[in-house]
Amino acid sequence: MKIPKEIKEINKKIKESGFETYIVGGSVRDALLKKEPKDWDLATNATPEQLESIFDKTFSDNDFGTVTVITGSKNPFTEKVEITPYRTECDYKDGRHPEEVKWADSIEKDLSRRDFTINALAFDIDEGEVVDMFGGREDLDKKLIRTVGDPEERFKEDALRIMRAIRFAVTLNFQIEDNTSAKIKKLAGSLSKISKERIRDEFLKIIMSKRAAEGIDRLKEAGILEMILPELVDNIGVDQNKHHIYDCYEHAVKSLEYAAKNDYNMHVRVAALLHDIAKPEVKEGEGEDATFYNHEVVGAKKTEKILKRLKFPKSDIKKITKLVRYHLFYYNVGEVSESSVRRLVRKVSPENVDDLIKVRKADRIGS
């Protein structure tokens, strides 16, 4: 591992104070995958109070004992480094939060409470050795997502892990181990216990991946999509007219696929996925002559409700809703006047025109 000097210095100070420390989690996983780690997290047998005495500039504002060290680095990935005492978590009464957090006395106990084997890895900087108790390195080689221990127990502890499994599978291009996959389907309904903000954040990580379309399909197959986006599930099997070869759901996913392929921003990707969300509601007729009158207007209203339900920030809701509302524009030379173009620009606002064109491209190519 190519370890930043700030991490080496933190490791040195902790060990000189008589404690252990390891690099843990995603940074170890990414390094083993030959990717440059971005987040550097450390675990130690020192308590929060002891860590605060070791370092000059720290802060702590959570229930898990994590102490953030301010390094003064200009590198955004090492400017603030989180250090968490080894811990073991007791019973989860609500599928979201442990009833009690207790400090553990070994890295092995700390790793045993983590979610997936590929995240239950630790690296000793001085010894240059990886601690791997659960076959995480083997699962990395096999490109496999598997829980640490019994998947039903892990998912009942924190139901958000159900979405995290799919997110890791999509972002890493891995498969989900059969037993883990079966328990995801069995326990998908427990996501109702999770806050909308946490679900939104995992959903956006899937949306912002290169395999965003695959992620939506995986959520659908696991029974999760109906929990978070039932309006999109309603689009499944709804045929369109002669201008489309896909049904409404497939078209939405294909539009998102194009947006992800071209590395479009979050607003464009979400709008591409939701731009035709109202078509089942307004559809009249069948076959090639089916019509979807006013679907962009109704769709904008539905989009606003969806984004509010998922606790999106107001500024994001406003922009994405506009992109859905006006996605149906067209400009054929000689058919559309300059005044019509000016009116559209005023309604959308100039700073959103480029994104609107991207949504329209995703719409057309996704057809």
> Shape from CA axes?
elongated
Q: N-to-C SSE series?
A: HEHEHEEEEEHEEHEHHEHHHHHHHHHHHH
Question: Which strand order do you get reading across the main beta sheet?
Answer: 3-4-5-2-1-8-9
Query: Main beta sheet, described?
Result: 7 strands, mixed
Unreliable stretches (pLDDT < 50, length at least 5) are none
**Distance between the ends:** 45 Å
Number of continuous helical runs: 19
Helix content bin = 40-55%
The count of β-strands is 11
Structural category is alpha+beta
Q: What's the gyration radius in Å? A: 24 Å
What portion of the residues fall into strands of 2 or more residues? Answer: 5-15%
Average pLDDT, rounded to a whole number, is: 89
Notes on the protein architecture:
The protein has 367 residues and is of the alpha+beta class. It is 48% helix and 10% strand. It contains 19 helices and 11 strands. It has helices spanning 5-16, 26-32, 48-54, 107-111, 136-142, 151-157, 160-172, 178-187, 196-207, 212-221, 225-228, 230-233, 248-261, 266-274, 279-282, 295-309, 314-325, 338-348, 353-365, and strands spanning 21-24, 41-44, 58-59, 67-70, 80-85, 87-89, 101-103, 121-124, 129-132, 144-145, 175-176. β3 (58-59) and β4 (67-70) form a beta hairpin. α14 crosses α17 (314-325). The mean pLDDT is 89.
Brief overview, please?
By secondary structure, the protein is of the alpha+beta class. The chain is 48% helix and 10% strand. The protein has helices at 5-16, 26-32, 48-54, 107-111, 136-142, 151-157, 160-172, 178-187, 196-207, 212-221, 225-228, 230-233, 248-261, 266-274, 279-282, 295-309, 314-325, 338-348, 353-365; strands at residues 21-24, 41-44, 58-59, 67-70, 80-85, 87-89, 101-103, 121-124, 129-132, 144-145, 175-176.
